[in-house]
Design brief:
The chain is an alpha/beta fold. It has eight helices and 15 strands. It folds into two domains: about 130 residues, 3-Layer(aba) Sandwich (Rossmann fold), CATH 3.40.50.2300; about 90 residues, LytTr DNA-binding domain (OB fold (Dihydrolipoamide Acetyltransferase, E2P), Beta Barrel). The strands form four sheets. A five-stranded parallel sheet has the order 2-1-3-4-5, with helices on both faces. Strands 10-9-8-12-11 form a five-stranded antiparallel sheet. Strand 6 and strand 7 form a beta hairpin.
Length: about 250
Amino acid sequence: MKAILVDDEADGIRTLQKMLELHCPQVNIVATCTNAIAAKQQIEQLKPEVVFLDIQMPGKSGLELITEFPQKNFEVIFVTAHNEYMLQALQYSAADYLLKPVDEDRLAEAVERVEKKIADGRKEDLSEILLHNISKSGRPAEMRLCLPTLKGFIVLNQDEIIYCEAERSYTIFHLVGNKTVTVSKPLIEYENMLADTSFLRVHKSFLINLQHVKEYQRGEGGVVIMSDKIQIEVSRRKKEQFLQKIKEIFKY
């Protein structure tokens, strides 16, 4: 698998190069670049299958570089220093990314995911949604959610999601219009990702969008009736948190 490494720090390139040689011998590094201008030339000339791309570089950023390839015929694994807002945008966008300092296990997993995408013939250009989500940094409720599916991915506005349901290690998204999407990730991942939004886990099996709550019926924990008329039980230990968050959102 042909690869190009792009990082404005030479030490970063050397470290990643050594890690790939040790842990991912199937990756053939055909070029390394320290800026976006050189990277664009090398990508056009060498046609790599994957680009390891530093996001934050002086001058033209890694994201700006990606937008210059409207017909992107390569996969991207973003590499970034820890930044809370950038990390949040990457997670919402379901982008492949590595945090510096790069962990060898995460590196091997990212390479394996890219290999699978290439083998399956999937072309996924997530640059548009990623740019949107980065523009909403600090406002996670306005970010779009990218859900990986067997055929590729689906992008959703959060108000399209009524609730999420746990099904063993899978999550079923119940959407407006009686649509569903099943994702091979556990519910806890989306609970953590959507923590600062209008979503709340009211039961071990359900993460609900409080914007879609139409009625609450009191009880030991109570029951919520969602906009699709589905009734969902609120667990006793979540009742107080649920009522408090409802007050915050609807200001009553």
